[in-house]
């Protein structure tokens, strides 16, 4: 196909995407030269939208306010740090685009990755579709409604409480659902002979490209690829379908077949490849192959897709141990909410990746996605970094007897599997309404849906009737029975230390333990309470090894907002701004020192859990995965010792090191981690002096800021004394400004926690002359130049 000047201009206006669906675009939009390209292409559709909103359901014509120009991902309102009245209402999104004559014989699809929560879509005034549910993608066929020249797309989104999608009404909900077109949108231009879109096809165990692994061993593996093709031409088509498997750019397996597809027909085509000595995917070695799927008709290249896949097997033995590629493993994990401060769910793909890096750096190899489907970008990051995922549908403490509710949940389960089935990171499908009394008939339908959509995969749920039983520790303490099936401790370490009843009434304030015993501690709660959080986690994680679980998941990775209360749920091992608490380093110390990756901080580690100030504990805790730790005070050896194993830690791979000092003496504590007699890591903490400076740091977490994609990043402002040591002061007001194409997103005053303030910034289309400046009373301004990153 020749790329005309007109199509080149359109592509420039829309920009190109090789994103979640892996479609390869080979148009050269940098010049007017024609280049060989597939007839089918995918175009990014995230720029140049218009937006309006209203809290009431009124006609669009009644909204007199002007349209706002926005880009995706987008949230209807930037919220305060503590989201006490999340915006709910009607959000309107409009986009005009030009259709060139070259599209006349194309199939044109639009794919929306997430729209909260009920979506209605019009093209040129004609309604082209609706979708219910705010966490999963939907695809619509626009072909018949398009006109040559100018076209206008209009979406109406309603994120108010919905009894069919659930979960609980926001005022009773333990998390926030936010709103808007908060993930990307793409336009798919396809030939009339096409690879179907799995969301539009709505085919059980089919649609698009579906990859499975009938045989997996270290000697050889079978890669099975099912591709669904559709022929919208009026005549039969002869086609050639090729699957190529590449390792680091080199072809290691290939298969090609020729088929006929009758006019107007849709069919599945199954192909297999054998891989000798495969490089298997696992958390320690997340090996990814590239699968390239190519469709030809005669000499015409019709469509080409590529995706990252991982060859691996999840099975269970007679003792219900998890076997990953035939070897037993225990998965240390955590739960994640996808919320960011201020922007809610409207994250860039890079921000999702940075979250995955932080989870992996914290010592985890498994993450439960609570309690809803999370972004394709996070799933891709889990594949790349080696995070095993428990993938979940939306559900939390809510059931509606209306049959439409059950239909929606089952449909969501199917859509979740269709979207995520090719990700090697997915262990099982939590098609379960968490902490909800579900009828047995619904459990059976959900369990059956998992096995129908992905034969041989595993279902998971918090009630009996699924392949894997997931049970929170707070429920286990009251209702434990020895599991007769594979078992995950789904949540632990928070609720059992927070509510004495350890029950389900999370919007009730009764039976709460005193604050200093809780695991819910903000970053500014002080050394004593942050150490208590770490001790609670140590005790609970240690206890999980006394039950036959193959995985556990701490509640929760990041602090988050809750719809039903005006505070932040602070059981995270990192703050809402992704700043580590002491418990973060406890978990990092549980990873083996021999596990090393270039993609994230790993290997030997040591961290002193103290501010070393006059009110600090003289029983100094040090977290390390080393054999020994030597602690020094002002250069003098206090002690060199092995881990302190006690009733809180007898089952842990790496208990904390506890050093008993006679008294507080100001100065510098230094901990040396020792393995095989050699120092392999060091950490220092110094008694701080008066704050005299601010140090700014941009959090890239393994991926640099990216322009033009609404990338959001944290900037941390750390108070320092004259020697450059951190100052731990809380609640010091800071002011920030930005120049260049940078937007500061904070909607609440910035104050320090443990001496550090946090900004969330959005990157525009250029980093040229982009900088952030932070000031505080009595301190010199600090400036961070972003173009240097």
Describe this structure as you would to a colleague.
The chain is built from ten helices and 46 strands. With 789 residues, the chain is mainly beta. It is globular. The two termini are 39 Å apart. The N terminus is likely disordered.
What does the largest sheet look like?
A: 8 strands, parallel
* Unreliable residue stretches: 1-35
Give a count of the beta strands, DSSP E runs of length 2 or more. 46
The end-to-end distance, rounded to whole angstroms, is 39 Å
| Helix and strand composition category | mainly beta
Instruction: Note the overall shape.
Output: globular
How helical, in percent, are the residues? 10-25%
Q: Which oligomeric state applies?
A: single chain
Please state the average pLDDT score. 93
In short, what is this structure?
The chain is mainly beta and 789 residues long. Helices cover 13% and strands 35% of the residues.
Produce the secondary structure layout.
Blueprint: H1 5-14, E1 41-44, E2 49-54, E3 68-70, E4 90-99, E5 107-112, E6 118-123, E7 126-132, E8 138-141, E9 149-158, E10 185-190, E11 193-195, H2 198-201, E12 209-216, E13 220-231, E14 237-247, E15 250-261, E16 266-276, E17 289-297, E18 300-309, E19 314-316, E20 322-324, E21 327-329, E22 331-336, H3 349-361, E23 366-369, H4 376-385, E24 388-392, H5 403-420, E25 426-430, H6 440-453, E26 460-461, E27 468-471, H7 473-479, E28 487-492, H8 495-498, H9 527-544, E29 551-554, E30 560-561, E31 568-569, H10 582-589, E32 606-608, E33 619-624, E34 628-633, E35 636-641, E36 657-660, E37 668-675, E38 678-686, E39 693-699, E40 712-720, E41 733-739, E42 742-744, E43 750-751, E44 756-763, E45 771-776, E46 779-785
Parallel strand pairs: 22-23, 22-29, 23-24, 24-25, 26-27, 27-28, 28-29
Antiparallel strand pairs: 1-10, 2-3, 2-4, 4-9, 5-8, 5-10, 6-7, 6-9, 11-13, 12-13, 13-16, 14-15, 14-17, 17-18, 19-20, 20-21, 30-31, 32-33, 33-36, 34-35, 34-37, 37-38, 39-40, 40-44, 41-43, 41-45, 42-44, 45-46
Helix pairs in contact: 3-4, 5-6, 9-10
